[in-house]
Design goal:
This protein is α/β, with parallel strands linked by helices and about 550 residues long. It folds into four domains: about 230 residues; about 45 residues, no CATH class; about 90 residues, Arc Repressor Mutant, subunit A; about 140 residues, tt1808, chain A, CATH 3.90.1570. Helices cover about 40% and strands about 15% of the residues. Strands 2-3-4-1-6 form a five-stranded parallel β-sheet. Strands 14-17-18-19-20 form a five-stranded mixed β-sheet, sandwiched between helices. Strands 7-9-8 form a three-stranded antiparallel β-sheet. A hairpin with a 2-residue loop joins strand 15 and strand 16. It is elongated and about 85 Å long. The termini are far apart. About 35% of the residues are buried.
Length: about 550
C-alpha cells in the first residue's frame, strides 16, 4: 500500500503551514526580496509554478497585521540574522490579486474590479480616522459607484495606508496580466491596456520622493509591452525565466524533489518522476513543475499521469494560430515539434506585444515558452537562435491534446483514422462531411488564400487523434512536390493514405480531377513503397465539400 502524504491545493501560506501539509521551504525568497535594491520587481513565471503561494508568504512575513513568528518557526528564514528578522511584520502590506478578473467583456471586468476595490476599501476602513481623506470618494468605492477614478483607487488606498501608519507600504500584485491576456482573447485589449497603464503609473510612481511604496512585487506569465505599459513606471525591474535571480524559488530544484521523494519512501520513482515533470530550464537551473510534483505526492497511488492540465493559455494560442497569415508555416513547425520534441532557430521576445503575435512565429513560440509548454534546450544570454524543446512527458501530452481537440463540440467522440484503418471509407466520407457542415457553422471559413490552410488545419485536428495507428506527416517533400497529408500505418499490412486538399471556385468534379492529377504527376507515392495506397482528394467550397478516393 502506498504511503499517504498530506498535500493541500491552497495558495494561502498560513493555511498550508498550519495544515501540516508538504511544504518545500522557499522562505529564503524573503531574504532575496529584502536584499534586492529595486523599488519594485516583476517576476513572470508559468501558471501553477508557486507564484501566488510565494506572494502569500511575503504577505504574512511583512504585514503589520500579524505576528508571524510562530508561523515561520523552523523555516530557513528564521535562521537569518537580525537584518532580516527585524523586517517581519513591520510594514503595511496590501495584496491585489487579478487572476479572477478574466471576463468576457470590458464592462464585466470593470464590475469585477469594482468588487475587488470595494472589498479592499472595506477591509482598511479604519484609515478614515485620518481627516484628510475624501470620505465621499471612499464610500463611492465601497458602494461600487466610482467610475472616473476607478483605475486610481488602488494607488489612493496605498497612500491612505502610508499616511495612517507613517510607513511606506509593501504592494503585492498577483497575476497582473490575467485581465490583459483575456482582454486580448475577448476583443477589449485596447481598453484593458489603458486601464492597466493608469493603475501602474499611479501606483508604482517612478519618482522616489512621491512614492508611497517600500517595495512592490508583481507576478504574471509575461511582460506585456503594448504601448509601453511600464514606461511611466520605469522603476519596475523585470526578472524573467531567462534571468538567474529568483530562478530557484518558483518550481522545485532537482535536489528538493529527490529529498522529498526519499523522505516519503519514493526513491524508486525518481527517474520516472524526472521524465514526467522535470525539464524546465530557468536560466541555468533545471526546475520541476511544483504543481505536478505535489499532485503526484498527494495521489494515493502516486500515479505518473498529467496533473498540470491544459487550461491556461491554450485558447489564446489556438486563436493566434488561426489568425496567422503564415498559419501553415506554424502548423508545419508545430507538427514537427510533436514528432521531434523541439523547434529551432527561435529569437525569443520576452517583452510581448500581443498585437505583434498574429504574424510572428518567434512570438508564438515565445508565448508557448512563457506559458510553460516549451523550455530552452540550453541557456543563451542573448536569446537569439534558441532551440526550444518539450520539457517532459506531461507537457508533450498537453501539446498533443491541443491538436487532437483543435475544434470542440461536433468533433467529440469521432475517430476518423479508425474508419480509415478498418477501410470503412464510405463511413469516413459521410461522417467527415456531416462534421464539417456542423463544425463550420461555428467558424468563419476564410475566403482568401488562407482558405486551403484552414481546411488543412481542420483535417489535421481530426486525424491527429489516430497517431497511435499512423505516422501522420504534412507538407513534406515527396517525388516532385509537397503533399498535403500522408498517413503511413505502422503496420505494413494496413492501407496508407495520400490526402490532397483543394479549394473549388466552381466545379467540384474538375477540382477533384485536378487533385488526383497533382498526386500522380508529383509522384507523392514514392514515400510509400511496399504499402497498399488509397489516394483521397477533399474539395472544399465555403462550407460545402466533396470527397473522392481512388
Amino acid at each position: 500500500m502506498s504511503k499517504e502524504i498530506k498535500v493541500t491545493e491552497t495558495n494561502d501560506f498560513k493555511k498550508l503551514i498550519e495544515s501540516g501539509a508538504v511544504y518545500i521551504d522557499k522562505t529564503l525568497f524573503i531574504k532575496e526580496i529584502i536584499d534586492n535594491n529595486d523599488d519594485s520587481v516583476m517576476i513572470p513565471r508559468p501558471r501553477r509554478f508557486g507564484k501566488t503561494l510565494n506572494l502569500s508568504m511575503l504577505y504574512y512575513y511583512f504585514s503589520n497585521e500579524f505576528d508571524s513568528h510562530e508561523l515561520f518557526k523552523g523555516l530557513n528564514i528564521m535562521e537569518q540574522d537580525e537584518k532580516y528578522l527585524s523586517e517581519m511584520n513591520k510594514y503595511p502590506t496590501i495584496f491585489l490579486d487579478l487572476k479572477n478578473t478574466k471576463k468576457d467583456t470590458y464592462s464585466e471586468f470593470i464590475d469585477r474590479y469594482k468588487t475587488i476595490m470595494s472589498d479592499l476599501f472595506k477591509k482598511y476602513k479604519f484609515v478614515l480616522e485620518n481627516s484628510d481623506i475624501d470620505v465621499d470618494f471612499y464610500n463611492r468605492i465601497i458602494n461600487k459607484e466610482e467610475d472616473s477614478e476607478l483605475a486610481d483607487a488602488f494607488s489612493y488606498l496605498v497612500g491612505y495606508l502610508k499616511d495612517y501608519y507613517h510607513e511606506k507600504v509593501i504592494v503585492i500584485l498577483d497575476e497582473y496580466d490575467a485581465p490583459i491576456l483575456h482582454g486580448y482573447e475577448k476583443g477589449y485589449y485596447n481598453e484593458i491596456i489603458e486601464f492597466m497603464k493608469q493603475l501602474f503609473v499611479t501606483t508604482f510612481k517612478p519618482e522616489p520622493i512621491y512614492s508611497n511604496i517600500h517595495k512592490g512585487i508583481i507576478t504574471g506569465i509575461s511582460r506585456i509591452s503594448k504601448e509601453n505599459l511600464f514606461s511611466d513606471a520605469n522603476n519596475i525591474k523585470v526578472y524573467n525565466i531567462t534571468d538567474s535571480k529568483f530562478s530557484t524559488y518558483f518550481g522545485f530544484t532537482e535536489d528538493e524533489v529527490i529529498n522529498i521523494l526519499e523522505e516519503n519512501d519514493l526513491k524508486e520513482k525518481i527517474s520516472e518522476v524526472k521524465k514526467w515533470y522535470d525539464g524546465y530550464l530557468f536560466n541555468k537551473y533545471t526546475i520541476y513543475n511544483p504543481w505536478s510534483i505535489l499532485s503526484f505526492l498527494g495521489n494515493s497511488d502516486h500515479a505518473l499521469i498529467p496533473y498540470w492540465g491544459n487550461t491556461g493559455g491554450v485558447h489564446l494560442i489556438k486563436s493566434l494560430i488561426y489568425n496567422l497569415n503564415n498559419r501553415q508555416e506554424i502548423l508545419n513547425s508545430y507538427e514537427n515539434l510533436l514528432k521531434t520534441g523541439y523547434v529551432e532557430h527561435i529569437n525569443l521576445n520576452i517583452k510581448l506585444d500581443l498585437t505583434d503575435l498574429e504574424g510572428d512565429r518567434d512570438n508564438i513560440y515565445t508565448l508557448l515558452m512563457l506559458s510553460g509548454y516549451l523550455t530552452p534546450a540550453e541557456f543563451k544570454p542573448d536569446l537569439k537562435d534558441v532551440k526550444l524543446r518539450i520539457p517532459n512527458l506531461e507537457v508533450k501530452g498537453e501539446l498533443e491534446s491541443i491538436v487532437k481537440n483543435w475544434f470542440k463540440g461536433p468533433l467529440k467522440g469521432y475517430d476518423f483514422t479508425e474508419y480509415l484503418y478498418n477501410n470503412k471509407l464510405e463511413l469516413f466520407k459521410t461522417t467527415f462531411e456531416n462534421v464539417v457542415i456542423e463544425s463550420f457553422s461555428y467558424y468563419d471559413v476564410p475566403n482568401n488564400n488562407n482558405g486551403e490552410n484552414f481546411y488543412h488545419a481542420f483535417a489535421m485536428g481530426l486525424l491527429m487523434s489516430g497517431s497511435s495507428n499512423y505516422e501522420i506527416t504534412s507538407n513534406r517533400e515527396s517525388g516532385y512536390g509537397r503533399y498535403d497529408l500522408i498517413l503511413k500505418p505502422f503496420d505494413k499490412n494496413v492501407t496508407a493514405y495520400i490526402i490532397e486538399f483543394k479549394v473549388s471556385d466552381s466545379d467540384f468534379d474538375n477540382t477533384i480531377e485536378e487533385g488526383f492529377r497533382q498526386i500522380d504527376e508529383m509522384k507523392y507515392e514514392v514515400s510509400l513503397k511496399d504499402y497498399k495506397i488509397v489516394k483521397m482528394v477533399i474539395a472544399f467550397k465555403g462550407k460545402k465539400l466533396k470527397i473522392e478516393t481512388r
